[in-house]
Structures are given as structure tokens and as C-alpha cells.
Amino acid sequence: MKALRRKDLISIFDLAKEEIEGILSLAATLKDKFRKNISYTPLAGKTLAMIFEKPSLRTRVTFEAGMTQLGGHAIFLGPSDINIGVRETAADVAHNLERWVDGIMARTFSHQTVVDLAREASIPVINGLTDRLHPCQVLSDCFTLQEKLGSLAGRKVAFLGDGNNVAHSWIYASARLGINFSIACPRGYEPLPEIVREASAEATSNICVTHDIAEALSDADAVYTDVWASMGQENEAEKRRTVFAPFQLNSAALALARPQALVMHCLPAHRGEEIIDEVLDGPQSIVFDQAENRLHCQKAILTALMANTKRKGKGERRKAKGQVSG
Ligand code: CP
Ligand code: NVA
């Protein structure tokens, strides 16, 4: 695939439609090679530093295994390892890492931390989830949906629940790929208006925010949900359980979508809260296919951003910085 225009992946909205399609197509190629046990090592000798301020199963394992499979290596840096902003600044972390490794993947609380790392580092920075966005998840979800439905443009994805990071990335992806996206959420838990505005201004599809489940679910090809209390919001969990209860993805809600609508969840799921077992484990569910595809899509992202990079000297490092996004 053609190299991406930006050195980082911070937001899906930074990608052109063709770039997203390139990543999805490369993911399909890499998945095929993986299944056939064909070795493909474009990242031989390269290292990815993975910064995690929050827990992770899927993102950590798929980035780490992905680097190994692409011939490279990944280093896990957990919450107590580098402590960005407390032990040292994001800028200083970036200025160290760029001298040793070839890429950074970061999962942080503040979105600004990932933006700062990307601005300061001359090497690619990948957003592995912030309080604002989860681009790798949603790129992979689009790949899964494309596998299942054959095409994405003109399809409708309905999201039940919190207008948070996953929903935000869905709004951006929908705008870029011509997907109709409708979120039903409780009042006060809407996606950020600026994200809806920005995406809607460029979308050819419909981006809808409603408090009416039936409106959101009507005609939906896929129904998506996410936890009601995200990482870092644990102290709000009890209140949110009450507020979000009418937005549970249960059999009655699913029946409001198209027959055979696909059931999606980024996982981890809080069974019995945002989704019930019968739906999560039911015949319409593709949640474990989504999880499986994180590996292949992550490998496509890593390859697109890191396969053609060269080690840089001081002057070149300066020039490579400053491509800051959202
Ligand atoms: N969906 C997702 O990002 O899972 P983890 O939090 O386990 O990485
Ligand atoms: N919204 C969730 C997504 C987890 C993958 C969170 O931020 O915790």
C-alpha cells in the first residue's frame, strides 16, 4: 500500500478514505498470510514501545504478537514504568524513545498526552485508546464489518450507550466511509458536539444523535455497544448503571434492528449491564471475530506506518516532528 500522509495514527479523521481502504485491504492480505502460515517480516529489526496507562487484553496482545509476527519486537511499558507527566514530561519521553525504537503505541487517559508524544517524536505514534478516541478498535471493526457485509458505504451502524471514545471514532469512520451512524444515549452522555459537527460537515452519510432507541436501531445493519463506565470512570459506575439501563442491548432492543443485524462490542463486556449473555453469545454476535481482527488490522497499521521508516540523525529528527493531529 501507499505510505500514509501522516507519520502518526491519532484519529481516523486524519486519514483519507483511500488510506482507510488501504489499511483494510492490507489487513485482509496479512490475515490470509497468517492463516496460511506464510512468513512476512517487513518490520525485521524494528522495535515498538507500548505505553499503557490503563489495562488491556486485546490491544496489548495484538500489538505485541503483531510486532513479533512482522519480524519486530515490542516493549511493554505499564502504568508504573514511565508515569508520563509525573516522572517526566511526554516531550522528554518522546525525545528518549525516538533514539532507541522505531515506533510508539500509547494508551493514555488524556488524549493530549498522545498528541504531545506525536508532536515531539520523530517516529510514528499510534493511539491505542485515549479518553477521546479509539481509532485502532474502529478501523478493525470496519474491517470485520466489511468481511461480513461485503461493503460499508450506505450501511447503517447503530450504537447504544455512551458517547465516548469508541463512539467518537465510529463517528469519524462513518464520515470517511459513508456509513450511516446513529447513537442512542441518555441525556448528558452524548458524543462531543465538536466531533459530531466536524464529522457531519464532511460526511455524505447521516450522523445522528438521539435519545430514542427505536430511532437509532431502525434499519440498522449492525448494533454496537460498549461499557457504560469506561476505564477511569469506575467511581461513576453505580450511577451509570441506573442512567444507562434503558439503553441495554438485549433481545427486545435487537429486535428493533434489521432481522439478522450483526451484534458488535469492542470488549471487555460487562455482561448483564450494557449487553446480556443471550445477545453477546447469540447467533448474530460477531464480537470474537472483531477481537480476532484486531491482530490483523493492527499489523496493517504497524506496516503502513513503520515498514518504510529510516533511522534519523538529529537534523532529520527535527524535520520529522510537528505533524500534529487532533
Ligand atoms: N477493545 C479493547 O481495546 O480491548 P482492551 O482494552 O483489552 O485492549
Ligand atoms: N470505552 C471503553 C473502551 C474499552 C476498550 C473504555 O475506554 O474503557
Automatic annotation (TrEMBL):
Pathway as given in its UniProt record: Amino-acid biosynthesis; L-arginine biosynthesis; L-arginine from L-ornithine and carbamoyl phosphate: step 1/3
Enzyme Commission (EC) number: 2.1.3.3
Database matches in Gene3D superfamilies: Aspartate/ornithine carbamoyltransferase (3.40.50.1370)
Taxonomic superkingdom: Bacteria
Lineage: Bacteria, Pseudomonadati, Candidatus Hydrogenedentota, Candidatus Abyssobacteria
Binding site for carbamoyl phosphate: 83, 107, 134-137, 266-267, 294
Ranges of residues in domain Aspartate/ornithine carbamoyltransferase carbamoyl-P binding: 7-147
Recorded catalytic activity of this chain's protein: carbamoyl phosphate + L-ornithine = L-citrulline + phosphate + H(+)
Organism: Candidatus Abyssobacteria bacterium SURF_17
Protein name (database record): Ornithine carbamoyltransferase
